[in-house]
Design goal:
Elements (H helix, E strand, L loop, with lengths): L15 E9 L5 H8 L5 E6 L18 E13 L4 E7 L7 H8 L4 E6 L8 H9 L4 E6 L9 H7 L8 E4 L4 H18 L11
Parallel strand pairs: 1-4, 1-5, 5-6, 6-7
Antiparallel strand pairs: 2-3, 3-4
């Protein structure tokens, strides 16, 4: 028997936990986002993109993408001075995985939808699904280096977002901006959707 203390899978001060879905279109940066913020080694369920994807997955603008998420990405982060544990579930981007999207959003406190200025139309189906399921969400524009920049009020209009839906920018490779996007979502959900509460973690 080792004298070393048992590892803490959650920070000792955690009093609440929540499930958060990271959603968005194919190639928008969900896997990178989860990997940037997760405090544990992220679980990635990816497969190589093969010729079977030709004519099925739209690879325009993604010449260097070689893998795709086929089930989900999973990570965990602590916020609020380690009192809140967020379990992050990244969805696959292709619309053929819609049944999986529906399953992953079940029981979620909210969703962070990543969007790409080069293809804003790509996130409309995700937004529609979240609204159908009454899952509260915020939108974060993943700022790709070669993507055009638009004022956020123009993007809000293009996506037909409600005035109170949070809209921000982030760089999926940058942990700080990703954490800010998550905090924006949490503040929105907890202040405007009182029936949806944070849960006490099991001991």
């Amino acid at each position: 028997m080792s004298d070393q203390p048992a590892p803490h899978y959650l920070a000792p001060g955690v009093t609440r936990s929540a499930k958060i879905v990271v959603a968005g279109a194919f190639g928008v940066g969900k896997t990178t986002f989860v990997g940037s913020v997760s405090e544990v080694a992220p679980l990635r369920m990816e497969e190589p993109i093969t010729e079977a994807s030709v004519g099925v997955d739209d690879l325009r603008g993604l010449p260097h993408k070689t893998t795709t998420t086929v089930a989900m990405d999973f990570g965990r982060i602590h916020l609020l001075g380690d009192r809140l544990a967020l379990y992050l579930f990244g969805t696959p981007g292709q619309t053929r995985f819609r049944p999986l999207w529906e399953g992953l959003t079940e029981g979620a406190l909210g969703a962070l939808v990543l969007a790409d200025n080069r293809d804003l139309d790509g996130c409309h189906e995700v937004l529609g699904l979240l609204e159908e399921q009454r899952t509260p969400y915020a939108v974060a524009i993943n700022v790709f280096p070669d993507a055009p920049r638009y004022p956020l009020d123009e993007i809000r209009e293009a996506l037909a977002l409600d005035p109170d839906t949070p809209l921000t920018e982030c760089d999926a490779r940058d942990r700080r901006s990703c954490v800010y996007a998550l905090i924006t979502l949490i503040e929105f959900v907890t202040s405007r959707h009182a029936p949806v509460s944070l849960v006490e973690p099991r001991t």
